[in-house]
Amino acid sequence: MAQSTEANGTGEKPGFDLGQGPGRLLVWLYGVFTVAAASRAVVQMLLDFGKAPLAYLLSAAAAVVYAFITYSLVRGGPRARRAALVCCAAELAGVLTVGTWTLADKSAFPDATVWSDYGMGYLFIPVILPVTAMLWLRRAEGTTGR
């Protein structure tokens, strides 16, 4: 929650909630992606896990990363911001790695993951979202007074 300088008693510039303003859209998008990736992974693992276990496990991992980032954005504070930054960087690395892998070796993934082809099945939001979130989180770093 945002605090006034009087409330925190430090005389620092007041901070803001990570989930306010543009952060609210990030919370919403990460929440939607948490549900989408988790639902996709659960259905795929229940119906045909043997077909593409790596792809389905990567979708489940993406859901966990999305859930943690959502939680961190809602929680707010310097520690949550740093944790979210680390997760966003890991998410971006995952999207770029899996995206490149799916383009280079189509046979490695018999079925798509959330991050296949850089998130093309999700309008490339999986590659845009972590970059946007990292920019927002870096901006938040400068206003929270650490």
Describe this protein's structure:
With 146 residues, the protein is an all-alpha fold. The chain has one domain. Helices cover 68% and strands 0% of the residues. The chain has five helices and no strands. It has helices spanning 5-8, 22-48, 53-75, 78-104, 125-143. α2 runs antiparallel to α3 (53-75), α3 packs antiparallel against α4 and α4 (78-104) runs antiparallel to α5 (125-143). The radius of gyration is 17 Å and the shape is elongated. The two termini are 14 Å apart. This is Integral membrane protein. The chain crosses the membrane at residues 25-47, 53-74, 83-104, 119-137. Keywords: Membrane, Transmembrane, Transmembrane helix.
Highlighted features:
disordered N terminus, mainly alpha, elongated, 146 residues
Strand-residue proportion: under 5%
Distance between the termini: 14 Å
Mean pLDDT score, rounded? 84
Number of domains: 1
Helix content: 55-70%
Give the radius of gyration.
17 Å
Unreliably modeled segments: 1-14
Order of helices and strands: HHHHH
Structure summary, number of beta strands: 0
Number of helices, counting only DSSP H or I runs of 4 residues or more: 5
Structural class: mainly alpha
Task: Give the overall silhouette.
Answer: elongated
Largest sheet: none
